[in-house]
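Entry type: protein chain
Record version: 2
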Amino acid sequence: MKGISAVPHRNTVFRDILKLLPWSAFERLVEEHGTDELVRSFTTKRQLLALLFGQLSGAYSLRDIEASMSSHQARLYHAGGAAPARSTFADANRDRDSRVFSGLFTHMLGMTTRGLRRKMGDAVRLIDSTGLRLAGAGAKWARFSAEVCGAKAHVVYDPDLGCPIYHMITAATVNDIVAAKTMPIETGATYVFDLGYYDYGWWAALDEAACRIVTRFKKNTPLHSARSMPVEPGTGVVSDRIGFLPGRQAKSRKNPMQGAVREVVVTLETGETLRIFSNDLDASAKEIADLYKRRWQIELFFRVMKQTLKITHFIGRSENAVRIQMAVALIAFLLLSLLRKMAQDQQTLLETARLVRTNLMHRKDFTHLKQPPKPPPLDSPQLSLNWCST
């Protein structure tokens, strides 16, 4: 007789999420960097699963991840995961090549943007950094003062895609402009940033690559030989001038950016004025002001990352462990963004993260997490009893 299953099989939410990962690309990265050489049981794949479990479940420490995964061992087995021993997990985070995880993020980002046809001149890149507080053994590489250790996550963010396209980790003592000078420059893109990247030499490099620059003027930076441009009323623009930067940024540094630049002054809601710098002499003043206003989107991204994912509590404090955890947090961000788009109900990224956290090891359809589960269909061979009161 042919067997009939009374309860149809359904994967856990975690296992369905793992199916969204490009495992073939991950295996190539593991082989390329040799991270599974001489490894017995805790492979790089199991390390990634444990790290993703920690991000999506909201675990705060190695002990949290070990205990939570141990309680779900039967269901994790089918996903290829296993509860890691804390010491083995810590050693892997400290020693394994972080480029496997950052490479996976880059590959997934390429999958996300595939098929998106857009002129590079329309691409906007927001640049900023956020502080990451570290404490305990292993954090000396990021010592900020006698009592405080900290790192920085430097991010290039695409506001149209709603996701980061580049990241790097440094000690907190590294200035933002030092990190920015190592970032790749995309020819023709628009770069928007704040005063932490105030460097005429770097601006000149962007200008030579035909990039549009939108940032803030320092209060004490004059604009020489300036001529005023007409201002459109009702736009919030106070003045629009074209002139030249000072010949030197500091006493010993000659300014390589000798061409004409632009100053757009706008009024804020507080009544204060803001001086905006740009090397675009053709766009309207309102367009320049609106581009600078978009910079706040990267601030919102950092806030969401710290609310939904674990970049404020680190399970490892070595430089390599922090790099790995940041890369996996960005991978989790891409997965949550994809889940939000696939969900049948309208929901925010924060709501998606909370629903995934609550239902991570439940056998549910991850596209209907807001809806109550439907009862399993009744097989005809089963006896149906209808109770009624007499």
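Comment: The longest helix spans residues 319-342.
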